[in-house]
Known about the structure:
Elements: E1 2-6, H1 11-22, E2 26-31, E3 42-45, H2 51-61, E4 65-68, H3 75-80, H4 82-103, E5 106-110, H5 135-150, E6 154-158, E7 162-163, H6 182-191, E8 195-199, E9 203-204, E10 207-208, H7 209-221, E11 226-229, E12 236-237, H8 238-249, E13 256-259, H9 279-285, H10 292-304, H11 311-319, E14 329-331
Parallel strand pairs: 1-2, 1-4, 2-3, 4-5, 5-6, 6-11, 7-10, 8-13, 8-14
Antiparallel strand pairs: 9-12
Helix pairs in contact: 1-7, 2-4, 4-5, 8-10
The chain binds NADP nicotinamide-adenine-dinucleotide phosphate.
NADP nicotinamide-adenine-dinucleotide phosphate is lined by residues 6-7, 9-13, 31-34, 46-49, 69-73, 88, 92, 110, 112, 140, 159-162, 174-175, 181.
Amino acid sequence: LKVLVIGAGGQVGAKVARLAHRKGHSVVGTYRSRAVEESGIETLLLDKTDRARVEEVLQQHRPQVVIDTGALHNVDYCESHPEEAMAVNRDGTRWVAAASQRAGARFVMISTDYVFDGLRTGPYSETDAPGPASVYARSKLEGEQAAISENPDTVVARPSVIYSWVPLASPTGSASGKPLNFASWFLRQLLEGKEVRIVTDQIASPTLADDLARALLALAESSVTGVFHAAGATPLSRYDFCRRLGERLGFPSEHIVPIDSAALRQAAPRPPNSSLSSEKLRRAVGYSMQEIGLALDEMQRSMVEDPGLPAPLRDVLLAGGARPEGPSSRAAMF
Length: 334
Ligand SMILES: NC(=O)c1ccc[n+]([C@@H]2O[C@H](COP(=O)([O-])OP(=O)(O)OC[C@H]3O[C@@H](n4cnc5c(N)ncnc54)[C@H](OP(=O)(O)O)[C@@H]3O)[C@@H](O)[C@H]2O)c1
């Protein structure tokens, strides 16, 4: 297949572009500010809010599948920048879906678990009614709806808290000022000996980016359309997720302090429960999202295999125990 990946320098985009290339697909990756570092992948500059440029790129390259990972997803930033959030997450997604349709391409987009209000008990399925509580969530939901109306050959994949190993020193903060991903941010705090305050009252389905990339390609290679949840198989609070991650990598848990969301005074409301069932994905394309244990095994492997892994982190991983210098307080920004 000829695959165009939008946001190929981002956390998920980089994984999906690399995997597609390794599977033998011909890959073109776009970036806006962070260049794509992957050999064998043709790269080009694209801002999805530039409607004319989107059209030009799609007509020039005529991919068979477009996988759109591009978004403004700093939830608090979106709350105070609603026009920018809507321009990227709703309108930009519409331009890409419409241009894909005109170019004869299938459109695969990433949405979010935050489309739900979070008041349900237990994991949400695709038949549950959305109830977005923040600007970010509304912009993503309206992006889903715009894409489906513009291109009948659209698949929407909804993940939840995406994490993966990314080198801590690299400038991986997103365009909207969000530093690293949740897990890498958390690890950096622990490595610096900081006390990390993590909420116990936000439950999600933490999703390893590598696992999501495989699910996205399975969806891209299939002919299914519509909305699919593609999230980690184990619902966990942010606090429990951090405990599992810290324990797995050999950090003592006393530096992880449980707090309530109210203590963070986050600008945008978060759903208390945004865990997702990915059963429909399994039935439709035969791909099962990972349980947390397997996902953490995979993340740990990618850390050990990274030649650029900082020596202190390698020591912790190999020794199975950390020796932080003493806590200083830091609250979770996510
Ligand atoms: N991270 C999470 O916890 C999470 C949870 C649920 C859903 N999601 C969704 O998952 C998707 C991928 O997230 P991620 O973790 O991979 O984020 P990321 O690492 O921040 O990557 C986002 C990508 O979007 C690109 N982008 C931003 N604005 C753009 C624009 N106007 N035009 C074109 N590209 C643009 C960025 O490009 P540059 O960096 O080059 O500017 C970057 O490559 C997003 O759709 C997000 O809404 C994320």
